[in-house]
Amino acid sequence: MANQAELPPHLARRFEAGLLVVTEPPKLDLEAYISNYTGRTRFDRCLHIGQTSSYLSSEALKAAVNEAKKGIDVSRYSTAVEALQEVAPDDPDARLDMNWMEITAKQVKAETDRLEFELKGYKNNLIKESIRMGKEELGSHYFAIGDLGAAKNAYTGMRDYCTTPKHILDMCLKLVIVGIEQSNWMSVQSSVMKIRSLQRSAEEEAQAQPILATSMGLAHLAMGNYREASLSFITTNATLGSRFSQVISPNDVAIYGGLCALASMDRNELQSTVLENTYFRHFLELEPHIRRAISFFCNSKYSQCLETLEAYKKDYLLDIHLQRHVPDLYYRVRSKSIVQYFIPFSCVTLSSMAHAFVTNEEAMESELVEMIQRGILDARIDTQNKLLTSKPTNLRTTAHQDALLMAKKYEQTARLRLMRMNIVSAGLEVRTPKGSSQSQVAGVGEIFPIAPGSGTGAGRSGSRGVGGGGGGGGGGGGGGRF
Hints:
3 strands, mainly alpha, flat, three-stranded antiparallel β-sheet, about 475 residues, about 0% strand
C-alpha cells in the first residue's frame, strides 16, 4: 500500500515496523464518518485514521486532540498531541495545554476520592442498592478516565448487589462495552451469553437484541470466524439506530456483515440469507455498494463484484475493527470467485481468466498455483499450453463403486428381512402387551420394531415361545409346529 521513500517520517517509521500505511485517498468524509459515533470510540477512530492514512493524518489527529479535550482522559490527550507533533509540528493544537492537563488531573483525583469515599459509606450502611449504584458510578468514572481494568472490576463487583434481572442486564451490557474497548473478546462473549440466559420482557429483549448481535458479531470477526460473524450481523434488528453508537454504527453492520457473508457463503445462501433478509435489507440500504457487490456475485458477475469491493478497500483499511481482516476477506472473496468461474469448464485458458479477473497471465498463474497448493482449487495447470484443466475423473469407476455400495446395502436389508421372517415363523416373536403401541425384544426388536397385532400365529394363538403347543390353527407358521 505504500512506498517508503515517498512517506513522511512518522509514516515511514510505521512502515518499517511492519504496520499498515494507506497512501491512497479514501472515499469517506471524516467529519460525516465520525458523526456516526459517540464516546471513546470517536477518539479511537480519529487516532487510528491519523496514524494510518497519509491523506487524512493531520485532519484526523486534530479531531482526536479536540475529542480528547472534551473528556477527562489526560493520557489520551497527551498521546494525540504527540502524534500531531510528528505530522504538523507548527499547528497550534500540537502543543500540550499544561494548564488544562493540571486542572483535569486534579478534578479526576478529587472525583475518584469522592466516589470511593461514598462507596465506603454505602458499604458501612449495608444498603445493597446504594452499594450497587456506587460501584456503577465508580466504574463509569474509571471508564471515562481510561482505567479499563479498574472499570471492569467495579462493574463485576456489582453482581453481588444485583437484586433484579434488569440490574444484571445493565451490568453485563457495561461489561460488554469495556470488553470491546479492551479487545477482550472472550469476556464479551461471556457477558453476551449471560444476558441471553436471563429472563427478560419483550421490551427488554427488543432493546438488547441489536446490541447483543453486533457485540457477538464483533467478537467473531476479531477471532476470524467470518461465517459466525456474518450470521450475527445479518440477524441484527433494524431498530439498532444510534443505540450502540459508542461502539458501532448501522453502516458498520452493513459493511461487516456483507463482507463476512461474501467471504463465507455460497451464492444460494447469499441470495436467501442476505439479499432476501428483511432485517438486513435496511442496513444494506445505507451502503448500496455492498448490496451491489453481493448481487454481482450471486449473478456470476465476479469481475464487477471485485471491482466494487476494490474501490472501497482504502476506506475499509481505515476501519478500526476491519483493518487487519481486509486482506484475508478480499482473498477469500476472490478465491471463491475464481472457483465459481471455473466450475462450468473442464479446461480454460489462462488468458481468458486473466481478462475476466482484470490481471495479467503471470499474476493469474501465480494466484492459481497458490490456490491449488492451499487446496482451494481442485485443478491442474498446463504451463506449456497455458491452460487450467480440471482433474480427470473416471466416471466408469465411480459408477461401479456406487453400484457395489447399493448392492451391499440391498443385501444387508434382505438378510435382515429374512431373519425377521424366520423369527416370526419359528414363533419367537413376543406379543405386544396391552396398552403399548410398540414393543422391542433385546436382540430382535432393536433391529425390527414389532408392530402391534402382527399377522402371525404366534401373535394370534397365544404362543408362549418354543414348545408352545396350545396354539390354534390361526396364522401361518403358528406354535403347532413345535
